[in-house]
Amino acid sequence: MLQVTHVSKKFKDADVLKDVSLTVKPGELIHIVGINGSGKSTLFKIITGLLKADSGTVSLDSGDVIGALIENPGFLEYETAWDNLRFLANVHHKFQADKVKKLLTDFDLDPNSRQAIGKYSIGMRQKVGIVQAIMEDQNIILLDEPTRGIDKKGVKQFVDLLERLKAEGKAVVVASHDDIPGLVYDRTLTLENGELK
Questions:
Q1: Phi-psi region of 118 (alpha: psi -120 to 50; beta: other; left: phi over 0)
Q2: Which residues fall within 8 angstroms of residue 83, CB to CB, at 6 or more apart?
Q3: Is 60 exposed, middle or buried (0-12, 13-18, 19+ CB in 10 A)?
Q4: Fewer CB atoms < 10 Å away: N or C end of the chain?
Q5: 53 HSE (CA, 13 A, CB side)
Q6: Burial track 110-147 (b if 16+ CB lie within 10 A, e otherwise)
Q7: Are β-strands 140-144 and 66-69 bridged in parallel, bridged antiparallel, or unpaired?
Q8: Which PANTHER family did the record assign (predicted)?
Q9: DSSP H helix total and E strand total for the chain
Q10: Strand pairing of 195-196 and 187-192?
């Protein structure tokens, strides 16, 4: 279970997050709605430890593992999608070739393609970013504007994937400024003026 308690963050004199609290339980699919610049990415960066909160705490249960797609996914641009995913998973010695192959194929991406990821479209890069966020059996998944640049078929594939993750008891938080067609959330929260309601 993910517990965010009274988290605040300022950049210079601007309050980006003000006393934000959030509890995410296993099997929950939560939507955080907010315009660009509302603090969604900042909140995710604090949860993942990429940024330090000015105040407040983030806690996880023992055994929880976070997977995240935040802003523009960064890759080794001259390597293939497969080599990128293998490199990232091997950091924790958790590369599961069959699983990665299936996830890529489910998104109509060819695991055997020798095309460098630097040549991928925005939507294709997003798909690879989603795969890296879930390929190591992470049980808390944070997805920041995940369908950016993805076509209608890819959005349907994404919705099907999230339904499977939810059925497996994974907790998923999607942050976006608009609705994703076909996705049914357990809760929808709004991040506005630094406050999550």
A1: alpha
A2: 76
A3: middle
A4: C
A5: 22
A6: eeeeeebbeebeeebbbbbbbbbbbbbebbbbbbbbbb
A7: parallel
A8: ABC TRANSPORTER ATP-BINDING PROTEIN ALBC-RELATED
A9: 5, 9
A10: antiparallel
- Identify whether the C-beta of residue 147 lies closer than 8 Å to the C-beta of residue 173: no
Structural tokens at position 158: 């994404």
Q: How far apart are CA 106 and CA 26, in angstroms?
A: 24
Task: Give dist(CA 159, CA 142) in Å, integer.
Answer: 15
Instruction: Taking the CA atoms of 6, 59, 13 and 42 in sequence, report the sign of the dihedral they define.
Output: negative
Distance CA 104, CA 130 (A): 10
CB 187 within 8 A of CB 25: no
DSSP label at 74? P
Unique residue bearing structure tokens 């006393």: 19
- Do 64 and 3 contact (CB within 8 A), yes or no? no
Residue 85 has pLDDT above 90, yes or no: yes
Pull the structure tokens for residue 21. Answer: 């609290």
Partner residues linked to 50 by β-bridges: none
Query: In CATH, which of 3.30.420.40, 3.40.640.10, 3.40.50.720, 3.40.50.300 is domain 2-196?
Result: 3.40.50.300
- Residue 12, pLDDT > 90, answer no
pLDDT in tens, 100-139: 999 999 999 999 999 999 999 999 999 999 999 999 999 9
